[in-house]
Amino acid sequence: MKTLALTGSIGMGKSTVAKMFADAGIPVFDADKTVRALQGEGGRLVPEIEHVFPGSTRDGAVDRDALSAMVLGDRDRLARLEALVHPAVHHERTRFILDNGDAAALLFDIPLLFETHGEENFDHVIVVSAPPRMQRERVLSRPGMTVEKFERILERQMPDEQKRERADFVVDTSGPIEETRAQVDRILACLGLAPAQ
Q1: Rounded to 5°, angle at Cα 103 from 97 and 108
Q2: Residue 6 backbone phi and psi in degrees, to 5
């Protein structure tokens, strides 16, 4: 089994690329989606997060905006939150691997892969990238996103150029969707997971 890590900064198109791998039959573990489930209504982390960050939950779920306001820009609080979230995500990832033990490859969508020094745990790293102006336009068009919030998120993320340098493969999402899909197909073929087009 090949283990593939998919990463890239906010707004680069990771979700689109991950879906292309999924459509090709590669099981995908989405770290962000897992965190949302753990913090969503009835999620098992909700009581712990409320205990550590009073006022960060509402109606049985984490209020992401409230929690974000509490931790962004505060390294100590962010570290406390990560100490709750990371072990829970690791548990879910282990369960995903066991559930897909017969797959030829698994793809792990991990936004902060390099920032958490997780790249050593995978056979290949795929970085999704786009020009800064396009990234900014994509992110600022999201509901509830502000320039200040975007800049705080970028502060936590390794610059795109450095991620590209560390990647085994780079998928550039600045062109038409067909071009992005062709890049994914080439990666799959290179890894022996699909026939060359």
Answers
A1: 50
A2: -110, 125
In DSSP terms, which residues pair with 2 in a beta bridge? 105
CA–CA separation, 188 and 197 (whole Å): 10
Fold type of domain 2-190: Rossmann fold (3.40.50)
The string of pLDDT tens digits covering residues 65-91 is 899 889 987 889 999 999 999 899 989
| Domain spans of the chain, in order of start | 2-190
Q: How far apart are CA 62 and CA 45, in angstroms?
A: 9
CB 152 within 8 A of CB 32: no
CA distance 137 to 135: 6
The CA angle 120-28-8, to the nearest 5 degrees, is 55
Per-residue exposure over 3-22, b if at least 16 CB sit within 10 Å of its own CB, e if not: ebbbbbbbbbbbeebbebbe
Q: What is the mean pLDDT of the chain?
A: 92
Kindly tell me the sign of the dihedral angle through the C-alpha atoms of 54, 55, 57, 60: positive
For residue 32, what pLDDT is reported? 87
Residue 197 has pLDDT above 50, yes or no: no
